[in-house]
Amino acid sequence: MIPQSERQRIIALIQREVVPAIGCTEPMAVALCVARATETLGSLPEKITARLSANILKNAMGVGIPGTGGMIGLPIAIALGALVGRSEYQLEVLRDTTPEAVERGREYIDRKCISIGLKEGITEKLYIEVEVEASGHRAVAVIAGGHTNFVYVEHDGEVLLDNRRAASDEAEEGEVPLTLRRVWDFAMTAPLDEVRFILETRRLNKAAAERAFTGEYGHCVGQTLRRERERRVMGDSIFSHILSYTSAACDARMAGAMIPVMSNSGSGNQGIAATLPVVVYAEESGATEEQTIRALVLSHLTVIYIKQSLGRLSALCGCVVAATGSSCGITYLMGGSYEQVVAAVKNMIANLTGMICDGAKPSCAMKLTSGVSTAVLSAMMAMDGHCVTPVEGIIEENVDRCIRNLTAIGRDGMNETDHLVLDIMTHKC
């Protein structure tokens, strides 16, 4: 068993990275920054200027904002952040949104009070700077490195907070060094009472999926997979249920349903993909509560581990990372050993490396479906003794080096892809 002091650090890491969020985390993070700046100003801003990193802008352009009746994108998120946002709610910053607030938000936008642009001269992929002004007074708030990580706050030239030297989306002070072996050992041996909190991911994310089954959200991928025609094609099986639940939760989230999901490493979709395939497999295969807890811990901590070297935002679709976590959890629930979990990870990396992130949007539900399909396939292959070998592509014998190869491609190799994707998105006719 991992010593208690180390266990507590890992538990704190999970609790920091696996948190509730309403809506897509990028516009919510912008709204959070606006809320903090507005609170610092002490009055409703007459002018709001948001300067964002390209990746924040990319992921905030095409998603529904919760509680707005289907309104999309940053202007309404910013307006509501100023009008009703509360920074203590963190990524649930807009949970007090009402129809009246939305109408006020529309008026606020119509008055041309909001300016949005790219922040020049930064290296951070996650960077949000908000400047608010009213009656000759000014306040500034900056988030960097993490979706809720304030690094700078200023009011009328007085610096109230300055942690900018520590702002990095690649490594945070106090980060817990992980390997896949350490992730496995922790998930398998941690006392259950210390990690039982992970079941909250099951409650929130399953509720989001079931909400989507009752309405019309996004592209209705989850509902589509439950229809009779699709069941004749896909079957009525654990596999099809995994796909429908996972995509349904994403449908609801991306369409702006006012319902929280449990995120992972700053992404609601990553939290969904790390949770629901494991939950569905556990429930339908008769897993015990202990097995469910350990599988969920294994899944979520694997995602956190991979994101440590990938960074919070990149050109690599988050479903690749999250589905790798769920494949580990499913492999364990199938009775798999550590060696078989290693094989599942290698199978995932060999299959899905290169799937691009072209922003957060309703069609992300389709990518999650692709990711978790591969998660189940990789787990089944691993259990049958099939593993992609080191002579194939970017796979190596050492699984941690495989993960580093994946994250290097997503973090460094796909930078030009990221620039091209953003250019295409911002120059649509």
Topology readout:
Layout: H1 4-17, E1 20-22, H2 25-41, E2 47-52, H3 54-60, H4 74-83, H5 99-110, E3 114-118, E4 127-134, E5 137-144, E6 150-155, E7 158-162, H6 180-189, H7 192-195, H8 199-213, H9 221-224, H10 228-234, H11 238-254, E8 260-262, H12 268-285, H13 289-310, H14 318-333, H15 338-352, H16 364-383, H17 399-413, H18 415-426
Helix pairs in contact: 2-3, 2-4, 4-5, 6-13, 8-11, 8-12, 11-12, 11-16, 12-13, 12-14, 13-14, 13-17, 14-15, 14-16, 15-16, 15-17
Question: What number of domains?
Answer: 2
Order of strands across the widest beta sheet? 3-2-4-5-6-7
CATH topology of the largest domain: 2-methylcitrate dehydratase PrpD
Please summarize the sheet with the most strands. Answer: 6 strands, mixed
List the helices and strands in order: HEHEHHHEEEEEHHHHHHEHHHHHHH
Question: What's the CATH H-level superfamily name of the largest domain?
Answer: 2-methylcitrate dehydratase PrpD
Principal-axes shape call: globular
Number of helices: 18
The first-level CATH class name of the largest domain:
Mainly Alpha
Identify low-pLDDT runs.
167-171
Q: Architecture of the largest domain, CATH level 2?
A: Orthogonal Bundle
Cα distance spanning the termini = 58 Å
- Report the mean per-residue pLDDT as an integer: 93
Strand segment tally: 8
Helix content: 40-55%
Structural class based on helices, strands and sheet pairing:
alpha+beta
What portion of residues belong to β-strands? 5-15%
Write down the Rg: 21 Å
